[in-house]
């Protein structure tokens, strides 16, 4: 019998009091009946809310915690106040002590990263962690990192991120030799950044387990021509949020176009199945979940304002990564890479 | 009688041999019958092509030039080869010597910026130039800068860009006290960049001719809640291109949704006027034209792969800016600002 995957959940993170969390777990459990949950949060409240989810409650253990981290709390303060006793800390710690295979939180990103670094520590041979996002593309999905963990990454850190991202691609896309590019600005522009060119030189001059394909620009990410796009964290955060904002802006345009006249409403109704497919493609819930890479444990950050479908997809992502032993993959890949250099 | 605006055009820039340039000028001329053009490029070719545009030919002078700058040519090389004799150099120089009010080129961005800096020089009290783009938003349009001129701008340069962008907003949006924000990453993130925080402090502590509104994130740009969004050039280029890529990706999704079934085609046909409005909103030609700000002259960079409508809108943008005496506005604003500090 296969050992079930155990998932630690920070039930106190997220907007709207995390009301999407238990319904999300119930959704994911239907798809993954071999998992178990440890729920960190206010025991009484969780027990009451679990009454609606009988099957989920049968595979869940509750660990009482009454300290929750505020969504806008500064990471330093959150660390001080939340050390040892907050639901966020305890849920991360359960991964550290081997009680859980991974943790999911929809809480404060900065606090989650700060606690994760202290509890799980950065992997040997990796300088700094990264946050990886799944980016929907015309061809499917790509992994984009770093989207906000390491501001001002240098050449070696960008190389580390390439190894981390490529390992994640092996793990969740199930491909042995993923393709990787570095994000840069156009050849026609005045100049790029030195650290990106240096990282490119390192990646070009090594025989790697992934296929390094040079630079891409911002407008290339959505084309999906590479499996992994690597960048420094500030740029990655700007790119991710700008893409989200643009998608939202266009759906506003779309809505107002549809509501423009009776004729447009009729047309929309007739074509509604096609537009459902379109909406489905543009649904941010489908690809919810930023992964903290480079730590000795898997931490999944859900969007704070997601819905049950989104939270379930963040959980599913962690399950995929646990099943494929991503931490071992990263350790082997980074060791092989260091031997090469 | 009002003196006509004279526009220098680099006819040798752009993809597809710049085939959109003369048709674009003809379009703009219909809207602006009081302008005149000086066309820099291969005289024989231009003369032949002008036969199709009788009215345009009557208000155009041709200056023969046979050296064109390649779209992918490195700026340093382009400068060496194109100095004095290329159509790009000559058209910029006509602004310097007062023959033209502004110049439009669809050529190589890096070369155009390098030549513009040498010929026109950076304005007094401005350290480095910026490229400003018009960004379509839910509420209308915003000015976004820098989108690629100054990589690694420091706090003072970000402050300069705020003054430049706000002056441009006064000029083309015709508002006396524009609102300005700095692009940053979320408060919940690990940390922002020091130079952005420093710029914010300078802007917060001065009584300005614009309304400084603090930070926005990538997903806020499209909301259009401020008139001007300021950032360093590498980030700006990534943001602009990522937004363009996302818009293109969604229109691909849209096209494939429409072509999915007979029913969806019928629905689309019935609602087609609404979708034309949507397409119109998403048409990148409508807001074509990056403006080089901070130089002693107006240089408009058109997209290299635009169409006649796009090229005409780049020309129109320059006309608006010339009519409102943007250079005087910038000089006054920057002097007032320096006196305050």
Keywords:
homodimer, 341 residues, alpha/beta, Isopropylmalate Dehydrogenase, eleven-stranded mixed β-sheet, globular
What would your notes on this structure say?
The structure is a homodimer of 341-residue chains. The first copy, chain A, folds into two domains: 1-126 and 294-324, Isopropylmalate Dehydrogenase; 131-290, Isopropylmalate Dehydrogenase, CATH 3.40.718. Chain A is 47% helix and 17% strand. Chain A has 13 helices and eleven strands. Chain A has helices at 21-31, 43-50, 54-58, 75-82, 87-96, 109-120, 155-172, 194-204, 233-258, 262-270, 272-282, 308-323, 326-340, and strands at residues 5-10, 35-41, 60-64, 102-105, 130-137, 140-145, 179-183, 211-216, 228-230, 290-293, 298-301. In chain A, α8 links the parallel β7 (179-183) and β8. The two termini of chain A are 41 Å apart. Chains A and B meet through α6, α9, α10 and α11 of A and α6, α9, α10 and α11 of B.
